[in-house]
Amino acid sequence: MASLTGAARQRYVADLFSRISGHYDLMNDVMTLGMHRRWKGRTAALATQAPPGPALDVSTGTGDLAFQLARRPGADRTVAVDLLPVMIARARNKAAQRNTGKNGQVSLLVGDALSLPFPAATFACATAGFSLRNMPDARQAVGEMARVVRPGGRVALLELSPMTTGLKARLFRAYFHGLVPLIGNLIARDRAAYTYLPQSVDRFYQADELAGILRESGLQQVNYRRLGFGTVCIHWGDKPGGGGHPVE
After folding, report:
1. Taking the model in full, what pTM does it have?
2. Burial environment of residue 87 by CB neighbours within 10 A (0 to 12, 13 to 18, 19 or more)
3. What are 25-72's pLDDT values in tens digits?
4. Is residue 86 part of a domain?
């Protein structure tokens, strides 16, 4: 359940995503009407405004955001990690089917977002897309991303954002809590998984709180942008030691 913490939460989420991995891409397309691809493209564009260099995507799932990073001119090499071997296998299959070529190649590795297997200051940028709220310790995950980014580099996060008041919030909750579990049951045959996902958003940080976590991790020039009628946020921040970066 969304209320679990620590190792119990990590085990629950790992089992959940292993179960739905075969329908993961289709459900993302259905739930967002395909808009998640555009949001991931904008996240990759913001992340790669840091000085050129290697890029990292954390908890990559089936690799969509990593492939977006790899196509950006600012990323000379892209690495993606995920805790689940089944997700990495699906990302590798997707890469092979797409014949991504030199400008779309991604090194795909099994790895834990809470203990990234890279030295400090390795990457020019690091991203995470729709995964932070599922981690047992979001602060530690952001701290790890900040650790492995070079001075002057950028961390960019794409995540659903809780909405608590107003008409948009009521409509979003009706859709996400009412319709999405039904769609999940129909397509993925797993209503429980797509009941957990809306609950995980309700329990996640508000946009200002997540911005504060980036600052606590030592990042500067922290900002965020709302997308998807306010239901989605891109957060970003720069590691001290480099010049400021433009915002598209």
Report:
1. 0.91
2. buried
3. 999 999 998 999 999 999 999 999 988 999 999 999 999 999 999 999
4. yes
